[in-house]
Amino acid sequence: MKPVSKTFWLFPWRQMSVTLKDIARKVGKSVTTVSRALHDYDDVSPETKALVRQAASELGYIPNILAQRLQKQRTDTLGFILPTFGPRFSDPFFSEFLAGIGNKATELGYDILVATRPPGEEELRAYRDIVQSYRVDGFILVRTRRNDCRIQYLLETGFPFVAFGRTENTGPYPYVDEDGEYGMRLVVRHLARLGHRRIAFLGAPENLMFAHCRKQGYIHGMEEAGLPTDPSLITTGDLTQRDGYEKTLQLLDTPSPPTAIAASNDLMALGAISAAQSRGLHVGADIAITGFDNIPLAETSHPPLTTVHQPIYQIGQMVCEMLVGIITGAHPHPESVLLKPSLIVRESCGTQATAPAN
Amino acid sequence: MKPVSKTFWLFPWRQMSVTLKDIARKVGKSVTTVSRALHDYDDVSPETKALVRQAASELGYIPNILAQRLQKQRTDTLGFILPTFGPRFSDPFFSEFLAGIGNKATELGYDILVATRPPGEEELRAYRDIVQSYRVDGFILVRTRRNDCRIQYLLETGFPFVAFGRTENTGPYPYVDEDGEYGMRLVVRHLARLGHRRIAFLGAPENLMFAHCRKQGYIHGMEEAGLPTDPSLITTGDLTQRDGYEKTLQLLDTPSPPTAIAASNDLMALGAISAAQSRGLHVGADIAITGFDNIPLAETSHPPLTTVHQPIYQIGQMVCEMLVGIITGAHPHPESVLLKPSLIVRESCGTQATAPAN
DNA sequence: TTGAAAGCGCTAACAA
DNA sequence: TTGTTAGCGCTTTCAA
To answer: pTM of the entire structure?
Structure first.
């Protein structure tokens, strides 16, 4: 009989807690032997193994992860700190990405440790804390910045991580990214072919690497098409639908408004659609609007949104898999991946520029 | 000089790892004393405390969480298993809720362990595993079901948890919930006052508690208004925008279509708006459409969506706070909370039914 | 006011 | 093939 400990009264669910010692006692072997039997070491006799396993399952043994972790000095946990500000935060990007890494992590036997921090000092401190207190075996980064202190720190310390996104200020590191420059060029090229000449760009803060790339794509796309880039057609927003809405109203209210608007992400594009509609424009006919990301909403918006596909879920899975490869040593130096995106043409860009200004 | 261990070569970032022993050696005290000094025990002399703290900060001491956890048998981690199926998962609900619990947890010194599992067997097994291997100190549940095996299991084992949502098949447990029945009644009442008689309902699977409540609200609201409930006006969807879109097309293509559509959530309502618009209807004039949740998108959709507000972020915070109260013993038996929602009237429901069918 | 010692549950080097 | 022993780094009696 196992004595009822004080612990039990405080934590009734621990009642069933069975340790190696209990098994050892039951089968009359040492704790060591039991441990090795359960790990299928080959210096344990088959009989003993059978005996031990039998006993383990009878007693309902479940290893105490805490003890295993202390011993092995690993946590079987991956860290994921969402760079986010306040409350009203609901970018579909994150939930889909999280599902990707979450499911893959589960498959590989890892947990995900999630925290949220606004980019900056506090965020970096969180990384430091977590690294130094051994809370995770590696990090997954998203929304990389052109000058990214997180990456710098992690590279300096040699701590395992994989990022979704490139950066500019460091040496090589493992990442998965989509070629946003190329994607946005596809968009502009498409719009130009439809006859648009005044193509506006709804950008995002350029310290965000992906925003920078997409803007580059816009600029290069315009050059490619032999179109002038008018600074008054380029805005910088915060990636929210609301912002896309407001910036679009401003654009539409200028003396010579654009005939097409290329947004840096779908959310802003959806806002742009609303704005155009509220000005009585027929999106896809009076004005072309495009997004970037191909979030689920893009497909069923009205009109459906022309956009660039970004397989966020799959990227999450890839990132997770790469990170685990690094941690376990199976693939200490994985190759980074740069995905070529494809354009998804829907109705929001129409088929022909109806009112080519200029 | 600390010897360079094998560990260092494998894990370079552990180089700086400083233990209590290091501090003890430096100040010429025992590990015990150092530990107590750092925890500010009052049986340590002020001088010693100062000395120890000084040394600790000089050496850059950071406690090894793994060791602390083993000792204390707690993980300082809260579990959160998202009930979700495959890839294309991007409900704004989850990211906002996660931000709520994430930020609050951080504030309280807890980590969040996230996993994703499709509801059912596998999900329950995940709960069992995590409970029995001491991986978290408590769970946060969302999307409660009318008959919820997770809650049943956690109640049976006495494991700490707090749920966002009520359930039907168990005894009392700590939860935060919004009165969806009431909220939906507000919607129907509003629509009825505007003159609508044929009000359709876009429902969700009724094993989901919140979906059930909202449907009840719809039914009661109709009764209250003295309107008949026509089964052909009631659909069951999967909460996605796509589904709202399709179900709405079906409704509109019947001989006597509804003049108003009350959706169980905003996503479906947005789909409904798209569907109505693709049939050439002017939402807010030709047809009224309402949502539920007040996600950020609702505000900037075109037209802006009439909906019921649900403070998801704050609910996340409350749930988190309650759970920590239970775990620490500060509030072992918190009172459950039922929030009264409020209606947010925007343009999607118009101001008057223009074509009140009979 | 301090320190020695035990132990959380597990793993692994070394002996037998 | 098995057991002894020694930790992982920390907390906490208990005795000095």
So the answer is: 0.84
